[in-house]
């Protein structure tokens, strides 16, 4: 008797890999739109150029592996990986940064392990961490958002910044998370008042982007692309850590719960990164533990580590732990009942 052996990601009913990936891409549109509004057309340039690189790398990898090209190109998985990576990059990153990041994500983090369904780590976050460690200056050069700068660069300026970086002379500054991490002696209220990129409790533009990704994530939950367990566990754990260590805004404070929930890549990570069905835990109880680990790591690295937005590092560390979590959280076999001890 021959058995059908399949691997993740699994889909039920009318869903397929391509339909799931298309839905994920659709859910990123509100966040991309808000980021574009606040930071300019560089966000769209990143996504479009990164998508072309991803398709080229996917084609190359499939040819080298002697696999059919069309079925894998039309499942949109390469575009999802590149979109998730490019959304997380600074809006006016040079072209070579995009090439290195997307190529590493597709060729190394995805195809070196066997392609879709076999990667033990989230490919987009692997590419992001490689860039962050290798090119910290370029990865920390964020443009001033609308409301801090008078205007944001237009489409042609964004093209010049991407393909001729030396010609770009836009206003850049540290992100709010980085300012909190570097703060040594100011009360948070004074820090907020002295830095125009802070709103009432978060960075200008960042709260709107997080809200937009939250809306996209709720849409994915409505479509049953993933379950609520991992995102909710991450957000609750992050909030709990922020509540426990928030001291009403002294210089040693890591920021309020609202600041952590609506700054950086919190909602983007909760709903679009750690919900990867391949590299996360598989059981509902395992997903709760997986999400809680990520929430704890995000807060710890943000407040005590050297990298202000720790979602990528937290997800990759949790990816390491996912098989261990699965081993101890698998549900009992139907009909199994523990017998009396001998």
TrEMBL record:
<dbReference type="Pfam" id="PF03116">
    <property type="entry name" value="NQR2_RnfD_RnfE"/>
</dbReference>
<keyword id="KW-1278">Translocase</keyword>
<keyword id="KW-1003">Cell membrane</keyword>
<keyword id="KW-0812">Transmembrane</keyword>
<keyword id="KW-0285">Flavoprotein</keyword>
<feature type="transmembrane region" description="Helical">
    <location>
        <begin position="73"/>
        <end position="90"/>
    </location>
</feature>
<feature type="transmembrane region" description="Helical">
    <location>
        <begin position="287"/>
        <end position="304"/>
    </location>
</feature>
<feature type="transmembrane region" description="Helical">
    <location>
        <begin position="125"/>
        <end position="144"/>
    </location>
</feature>
<protein>
    <recommendedName>
        <fullName>Ion-translocating oxidoreductase complex subunit D</fullName>
        <ecNumber>7.-.-.-</ecNumber>
    </recommendedName>
</protein>
<keyword id="KW-0813">Transport</keyword>
<comment type="similarity">
    <text>Belongs to the NqrB/RnfD family.</text>
</comment>
<keyword id="KW-0597">Phosphoprotein</keyword>
<dbReference type="InterPro" id="IPR004338">
    <property type="entry name" value="NqrB/RnfD"/>
</dbReference>
<dbReference type="InterPro" id="IPR011303">
    <property type="entry name" value="RnfD_bac"/>
</dbReference>
<keyword id="KW-0997">Cell inner membrane</keyword>
<feature type="transmembrane region" description="Helical">
    <location>
        <begin position="258"/>
        <end position="275"/>
    </location>
</feature>
<keyword id="KW-0288">FMN</keyword>
<feature type="modified residue" description="FMN phosphoryl threonine">
    <location>
        <position position="175"/>
    </location>
</feature>
<comment type="function">
    <text>Part of a membrane-bound complex that couples electron transfer with translocation of ions across the membrane.</text>
</comment>
<feature type="transmembrane region" description="Helical">
    <location>
        <begin position="36"/>
        <end position="61"/>
    </location>
</feature>
<feature type="transmembrane region" description="Helical">
    <location>
        <begin position="96"/>
        <end position="113"/>
    </location>
</feature>
<feature type="transmembrane region" description="Helical">
    <location>
        <begin position="228"/>
        <end position="246"/>
    </location>
</feature>
<feature type="transmembrane region" description="Helical">
    <location>
        <begin position="200"/>
        <end position="221"/>
    </location>
</feature>
<feature type="transmembrane region" description="Helical">
    <location>
        <begin position="310"/>
        <end position="328"/>
    </location>
</feature>
<keyword id="KW-1133">Transmembrane helix</keyword>
<keyword id="KW-0249">Electron transport</keyword>
<keyword id="KW-0472">Membrane</keyword>
<comment type="subunit">
    <text>The complex is composed of six subunits: RnfA, RnfB, RnfC, RnfD, RnfE and RnfG.</text>
</comment>
């Amino acid at each position: 008797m021959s058995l059908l052996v399949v691997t993740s990601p699994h889909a039920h009913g009318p869903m397929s890999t391509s339909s799931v990936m298309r839905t994920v891409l659709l859910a990123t549109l509100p966040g991309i739109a808000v980021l574009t509004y606040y930071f300019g057309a560089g966000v769209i340039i990143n996504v479009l150029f990164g998508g072309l690189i991803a398709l080229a790398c996917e084609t190359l990898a499939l040819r080298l592996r002697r696999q059919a090209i069309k079925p894998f190109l039309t499942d949109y998985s390469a575009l999802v990986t590149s979109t998730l990576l490019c959304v997380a990059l600074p809006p006016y990153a040079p072209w070579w940064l995009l090439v290195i990041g997307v190529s590493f994500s597709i060729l190394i983090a995805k195809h070196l392990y066997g392609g879709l369904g076999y990667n033990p780590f989230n490919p987009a976050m692997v590419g992001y961490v490689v860039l962050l460690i290798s090119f910290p200056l370029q990865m920390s050069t964020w443009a001033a958002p609308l409301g801090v700068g008078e205007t944001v660069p237009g489409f042609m300026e964004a093209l010049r910044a991407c393909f001729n970086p030396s010609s770009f002379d836009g206003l850049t500054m540290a992100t709010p998370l980085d300012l909190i991490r570097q703060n040594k002696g100011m009360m948070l209220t004074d820090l907020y008042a002295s830095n125009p990129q802070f709103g009432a409790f978060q960075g200008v533009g960042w709260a709107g982007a997080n809200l937009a990704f939250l809306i996209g994530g709720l849409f994915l939950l409505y479509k049953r692309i993933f379950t609520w367990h991992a995102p909710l566990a991450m957000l609750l754990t992050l909030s709990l850590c922020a509540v426990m260590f928030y001291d009403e805004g002294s210089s040693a404070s890591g920021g309020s719960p609202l600041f952590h929930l609506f700054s950086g890549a919190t909602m983007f990570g909760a709903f679009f990164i750690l919900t990867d069905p391949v590299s996360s835990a598989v059981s509902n109880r395992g997903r709760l533990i997986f999400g809680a680990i990520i929430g704890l790591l995000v807060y710890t690295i943000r407040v005590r580590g050297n990298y202000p937005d720790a979602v990528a590092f937290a997800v990759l560390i949790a990816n390491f732990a996912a098989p261990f979590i699965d081993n101890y959280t698998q549900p009992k076999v139907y009909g199994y009942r523990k017998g009396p001890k001998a």
